[in-house]
Write a structure and sequence with these properties.
Radius of gyration: 15 Å
Order of helices and strands: HHEEEEEEE
Structural class: alpha+beta
Strand order of the largest sheet: 1-2-6-5
Number of strands: 7
Helix content: 10-25%
Number of helices: 2
Strand content: 35-45%
Largest sheet: 4 strands, antiparallel
Amino acid sequence: MKITDFFNPNPEEQKKLQARQLQPSSGQPDPLGATVTPEGVNFAIFSSGAKRVQLLLFEDSTKPDPTRTFDLHSRRNKTNDIWHIFIPGLKAGTRYA
């Protein structure tokens, strides 16, 4: 790898870099919704009956399939009826479901 590759990685390297940047943590239960911070985005979702929650991220609004999917776990991503996750490096304007 050349030094210029570090600054202008090929598409495969860009995907690897992005995957490392989007390593989630448990997040916070409030405020509800998507909260953008300088470090990333916290998602907090209320559901009194959900047994399972997934966060879907979309890079391209013209494609129906998500770019990344995060499974939230009831032990680390749930406080009472609030499911939550923090995605570092995520920016405002990212499409999600």
